[in-house]
Amino acid sequence: MDSTTNFFSWLVELVESFSSGNPVLASLFTGLLVALTTSVGALAVLLTGEEPEPRMELALGFSAGVMLVASFTSLLLPALRVAGFARVALGTALGVLCIYAVERYAPHEHLLRGYEGPPQLRGLLRKTWLLALAIIIHNIPEGLSVGVATTYSVVDGVATALAIGLQDIPEGLAVALPVSKVQGRWVGALVGALSGLVETAMSVLAAAILAPLPGLLPLAMGFAGGSMLYVVLKEVVPEIYREGSSEVKASLGLLAGVYVMLFLDTALQ
After folding, report:
1. pLDDT by residue (tens digit) across 162-174?
2. What pLDDT, in 10s, does the model give residues 181-235?
3. How many separate domains does the chain show?
4. Chain center to CA of 265
């Protein structure tokens, strides 16, 4: 555990040295970290055979656990300590409404519920691309959370980036697999890797907005926390506990994600 903590401390020092106190540069670094892990998962598609797609309950459960805990420990609870209930509650509601609007008006597809988005756009894209778009949409709140957490504290930002980065490895593969079946493995790997850059862009965007407007930070922390909570409770949890899925794998993954995020959130304190 000491070596793990030393690695985290070294990474925090590296980010602080790289950014020289600039939250935008720090968020660029942490955002690139999650993009890198997404790329690792996407490149794994080059090693897959022709067997059916792997079951994802364990990996998605892990994602749910990480995002659920990160919403509170890295975003909502610190924001409440700084600003109190009203601004954080407003930010949380805005985060939920924003991701709800994106999901309602952007065409995408879920394995369980099928197509979501404007009915007139149904059939505009292949199902494989719609599945990839669903995960890319989920990357928006993850990237925002990394950028907001980094702006609040480099320690919290690194912990959040590492935890989200771990769960982005299977997400990168989940983006690459359906695309590779239609366009080939190299295209699938490229699309999966590029999906991680959505998180980098959102991380930098959040920091760039907050740097000159630090008073908005508690509102932004509520926004990022609410958007992640919405994704977990509306999208990920129903997906992993759908009929026919392995409840044991989903629950083990969920518990592992909770433990990892709790550890990362305390190891650097």
Report:
1. 888 888 888 788 7
2. 777 888 888 888 888 898 999 999 999 999 899 889 999 999 999 998 988 888 7
3. 1
4. 16
Give the C-alpha distances (Å, rounded to integers) separating 189 from 28, 38, 41, 154, 178: 22, 10, 9, 30, 10
Kindly report the pTM of this predicted structure.
0.81
- Domain boundaries, position 177: 23-267
Asked if the structure places residue 11 within a domain, the reply is no
Give domain status of residue 110, yes or no.
yes
Residue 94: what are its φ and ψ, rounded to 5°? Answer: -65, -40
User: Does residue 52 come out as left (phi exceeding 0), alpha (psi in the -120 to 50 range) or beta?
Assistant: beta
Contact 199, 211 (CB under 8 A): no
Distance in angstroms (rounded) separating the CA atoms of residues 11 and 213: 27
Q: 14 lies in a domain? A: no
For 20, counting Cβ atoms within 10 Å of its Cβ (0-12 exposed, 13-18 middle, 19+ buried), the class is exposed
